[in-house]
Every structure is written in C-alpha cells, then in structure tokens.
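Supplementary Note 3. Input sequence used for the single-chain structure prediction.
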Amino acid sequence: MFLKRQLDEASPQIDLTPVIDIVFLLLIFFLVATTFAQQEREMKIVLPEAASAGPISAVLREIVINVDAEGQVIVAGRVLSDDDLRALVRDALAQNPQQKVTVRGDQSVHYGRIAQVLDICRQEGVGEPFLDTVPIR
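The predicted structure, written as discrete structure tokens, is reproduced below.
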C-alpha cells in the first residue's frame, strides 16, 4: 500500500499578496495626495525670513506676483509692466471681488519696488495683498 507523504504543516510560508496590495495602495495614496508646485513658486527667488510666516496654500485660486532680484514683476512666467499688472489685477477683481493676491519679493530687491507692487494691488481694489515670507530657521 502506498502512503502519501504528508507535507510538513509546520513549515512557514509567506504570502506576499497582502504585502503587494498594501504597497500599491500606499503608492496610489501618495500619488493622489501629492500636489505639484505651481510654476510661480518654482522661480529662483530667495524669500526673506519672518517669524510669522505661514504655509503656502495651493488650494486657493490666487494671483502670485513675483518680484525678482532685478525688480521685474513676473506673473505666471510672464514679465509684466506696471500697467499690465494693473490691468491684470483689475480684470481678476472684476471676475472675483474676493480675489486673493500674494506678492513674493526677492530678499535682495529694494523694498520700495515691493511697496510699488503692493500699492498697485491696493489701488485696484485688493483688500489685503499678502506679502510672502519664509519662517526663520
């Protein structure tokens, strides 16, 4: 009589299916949860430090006005004159009276230039333009 050899039930076996499922779920989660930086925030502008600096919100539909080290005004990758900036802000406020505006000025630019940009925003009706800084390390 032939006896079937019984497999040793005590030998450990590793089922990788749940591990692979978890890895794929984590991968999908991080891909969905990651937000890509806006083009305006990728510019090479060194922001000054401030103790009350807050995180940048990517959720808001805001106009980001960059003032580079040479004093040029850049919005959405385009260099604008003061008149063009004035028209852009005016048009945005016509569509949305609660329009948010953030001014990001390089730390080496004269503050007078940043004040001019803030003044243009205020003249066109922006209630509180936000001056962007980074926290002190």
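The CA atoms of residues 23 and 29 lie 10 Å apart. The longest strand covers residues 62-67.
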